[in-house]
């Protein structure tokens, strides 16, 4: 399964922006507007999303 890091590394500028935006939705400190992303939590959320979208299909 592809990771957010892989997407960022291999993606074009639009993909990189999307990964950064996804990370921004998972801040380390939610009470701070410009907090760094919590990449571990974002990665877990991304993995769960893929699992739901894929359903029973194996990647």
Structure overview:
- The mean pLDDT is 91.
- The longest helix has 16 residues, at 39-54.
- 5% of the residues are buried.
- This protein is mainly α.
- It has helices at 4-10, 13-24, 39-54.
- The protein contains 3 helices and no strands.
- Helices cover 59% and strands 0% of the residues.
- Helix 1 runs antiparallel to helix 2 (13-24).
- The radius of gyration is 12 Å and the shape is globular.
This entry's quaternary arrangement is single chain
Give a count of the beta strands, DSSP E runs of length 2 or more.
0
Helical content (DSSP H or I, runs of 4+): 55-70%
Number of alpha- plus pi-helical segments:
3
Radius of gyration: 12 Å
Outline:
59% of the residues lie in helices and 0% in strands.
List the helices and strands and how they pair.
Layout: H1 4-10, H2 13-24, H3 39-54
Descriptive key words:
59 residues, mainly alpha
């Amino acid at each position: 399964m592809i990771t957010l890091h892989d997407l960022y590394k291999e993606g074009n500028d639009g993909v990189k922006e999307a990964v950064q935006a996804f990370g921004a939705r998972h801040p380390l400190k939610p009470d701070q507007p410009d907090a760094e992303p919590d990449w571990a939590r974002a990665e877990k959320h991304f993995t769960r999303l893929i699992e739901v979208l894929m359903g029973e299909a194996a990647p």
